[in-house]
Specification:
Helices cover 39% and strands 15% of the residues. By secondary structure, the protein is an alpha+beta fold. The strands form two sheets. It has a three-stranded antiparallel β-sheet. The longest helix has 17 residues.
């Protein structure tokens, strides 16, 4: 566990700090890529943004690493977007009320609090509010996927949780360590 923390500190302090002033730009103008032209990077950036936007670079890279670790683990879906959006689903009341509707026209939504990543089904808006953090999340997603930067920082972790919660699943996994406000685990 101490090795992971030492690596995290080394990376955190080696990263150049981004400007802290707000850009007040439209999110679309400040994006490095979009959901249309790079959907997998976009999904990863959304996960980084919602799970670790308050973290230093190292915390963002750790969340990205776990997401990618799940893609390579046979217990999870095979793409970044499918991993990020992995949830128990239910049909929306908007289409459920029409029994004659074709299955291809039915809309399904994640069941609240039944997702792999809590932000995806917490019932709150997923709209980006902090342009600087969004830009940083996009940069981290791009670099970990294309350059493999800090790939493996979580030493194979497939799970994490914030330090202020204690999920029941944590006792069935192997503790890897802590980076920022997240504690990381892997399958035994």
């Amino acid at each position: 566990m101490t090795r992971l923390i030492a690596i995290a500190f080394a990376i955190a302090f080696a990263q150049p700090m981004m400007a802290q002033s707000s850009t007040f730009q439209n999110v679309v103008e400040s994006e490095l890529y979009t959901e249309v032209n790079q959907p997998e990077l976009y999904c990863l950036a959304m996960n980084i943004y919602h799970e670790a936007r308050a973290e230093l670079h190292v915390g963002m890279y750790a969340v990205a690493d776990v997401t990618i670790n799940r893609v390579y683990d046979t217990r999870y879906p095979n793409t970044i977007c499918d991993v990020v959006k992995d949830a128990k689903m239910k049909e929306s009341w908007k289409t459920k009320q029409y029994p004659e509707l074709d299955d291809s026209q039915r809309v399904y939504i994640p069941i609240r609090n039944m997702c792999q990543f809590s932000w995806y089904c917490d019932g709150r808006s997923d709209a980006v509010q902090d342009n600087d953090s969004w830009r940083m999340a996009q940069e981290v997603a791009y670099r970990i996927v294309t350059e493999k930067k800090y790939r493996g920082i979580t030493e194979g972790a497939t799970h994490y949780h914030a330090t202020y919660v204690s999920p029941s699943w944590r006792t069935s996994l192997d503790l890897v360590g802590r980076i920022g406000t997240h504690i990381f685990y892997r399958w035994m």
